[in-house]
Amino acid sequence: MTIKLNSNALPRREFLVATATAMAATAALTKSLPAADSSDSTRVPLGLDGHSLRGMKWKAAQQIEFAAQQRLDAVLLNSLDYFESLDESHLLKLKELANQHEMRIYVGAGGICQNAAKFNDKWGNAQEMLATGIRVASSVGSPVVNVRIGSIADRFLDGGIQPRIDEAVRVLKASSKRAQDAGVKFGFENHAADLRSEELLELIEAVGTDVCGVMLDPGNGLWAMEDPMAHLQALAPHVVCNSLRDYMIWESPEGATFQWTAVGDGLMDVPAYVKTLAKSNPGMPIFVESISNSARPIPFLTEEHWEGYPNLKAKSIVDFLALCRRGHEIGVDEPAEGVDAKKFDQQHQRGEFLKSIEYLRANCRAGLRSNAEKVVEP
After folding, report:
1. How far apart (Å, rounded) are the C-alpha atoms in residues 144 and 164?
2. Could you give the CA distance from residue 281 to residue 294 in angstroms, rounded to a whole number?
3. Closest CA to 76 of 108, 31, 121
4. Is residue 180 part of a domain?
5. How far is the C-alpha of 290 from the C-alpha of 219, rounded, in Å?
6. Which tens digits make up the pLDDT trace of 91-100?
7. What pLDDT score does 181 carry?
8. Distance between CA 288 and CA 245 in Å, rounded?
9. Contact between 159 and 145 (Cβ < 8 Å)
């Protein structure tokens, strides 16, 4: 497959630099892996976040089968939409399928704030959706049900992010007993730059850390102007679930621009990140959510951007600014002429995910089992 860079997505003067960078990254792909020893207690369980393969449109069973083919230890289905049915019989079949492959299922319900910029009422109101999420988690054996507010857009609504935090706390408190009775803990996600670490800590402490922890996403921490390593240090004691991807960020005229990358292709000290995360919650899988090939702006040099962060002080983003200076611009891959865009996206996503788990196995003692000798598409 031929891949070409989208020169329209880059300043012309930097196109050749980005091209060389992309070629170097491709050449660095790991060719082989050591076998993992499941008896080695120092290894970290490794999992698939289903959003890594979003272009496939796979449902839960297909996600589980693919994860099994990759000899993974868990799968994260971070939305109720992954389930073809929410009937108890279907959920128990999925649990049995995962058990057959010696895998665990983790689940998420979605946004629980009806006062967010966008709220999906497909599963009823926030309380009803959360009750469904708890039931699903309990049925498939998930120790958590992940929830969130929404996106960066919620920071710019009337009153800012605080009314959304208050609403999330209200909904979660009302469902705390139901979750505790089911043996399920809430994993609150920092999603699409809606929350910074200090705000997430405020939220889970208000709900109660006995029933609510953090669903940690370093990519979204970066989007909220935090160095993901500092973000991890602040939240590590409370992490109950996670999704991992790497990142590249660089300075731009309006502030900064970033792209998420395959694990090992960006600025993250991945071994240190994984070691810290594993120490915070021994036995918790590291879920790979590889999202890449899309540049996003963080226009912190504009007045409009700071309307979403009225109380944030300059000293709070010093680590983030230093990170911006460390990075360099990278390009966007496009399908070659005549290649179907949908198939290109699917192949690109699959490739980024496989590259990520290869890196984690080779460099971070991740994965309790050896990699599959031969991979067959489900």
Report:
1. 21
2. 31
3. 108
4. yes
5. 10
6. 999 999 999 9
7. 98
8. 6
9. no
Question: Could you tell me the sign of the dihedral formed by the alpha carbons of 79, 181, 244, 283, in that order?
Answer: negative
Alpha-carbon span 189 to 186, nearest angstrom: 9
φ, ψ of residue 260 to 5 degrees: the values are -80, 155
Q: How many whole angstroms separate alpha carbon 202 and alpha carbon 114?
A: 20
Identify which of 172, 77, 163, 92 has the alpha carbon closest to the alpha carbon of residue 130. Answer: 172
| pLDDT tens, position by position, 11-51 | 433 433 343 333 343 333 333 333 434 446 789 999 999 99
C-alpha distances in Å from residue 267, one per residue of 42, 67, 263: 25, 26, 9
Which residue do the tokens 């796979």 mark? 58
In a domain, 300, yes or no: no
132 part of a folded domain: yes
User: Alpha carbon of 285 to those of 193, 216, 354: distances in Å?
Assistant: 23, 12, 16
3-state class (DSSP) for residue 72: coil
Predicted structure pTM score: 0.88
| In the predicted structure, residue 330 carries a pLDDT above the cut 80 | yes
Here the tokens at position 286 are 């590291």
Phi, psi at residue 134, to the nearest 5°?
-65, -45
Provide, for the chain, the percentages of residues in helix, strand and coil under a 3-state DSSP scheme, each rounded to the nearest 5.
45, 15, 35
- Strand pairing partners for 107? 77, 145
Q: Is residue 25 part of a domain?
A: no
Cross-strand partners of 288: 48, 244
3-state secondary structure of 372: coil
Total of domains in the chain:
1
Element (H, E) at 279: helix 270-280
**Token pair 């007993």 in the structure block, residue:** 177
Range of the domain at 130: 41-246+269-290+340-363
CATH of the domain at 216: 3.20.20.150
pLDDT in tens, 114-170: 999 999 999 999 999 999 999 999 999 999 999 999 999 999 999 999 999 999 999
Question: How many angstroms separate the first and last alpha carbons of the chain?
Answer: 21
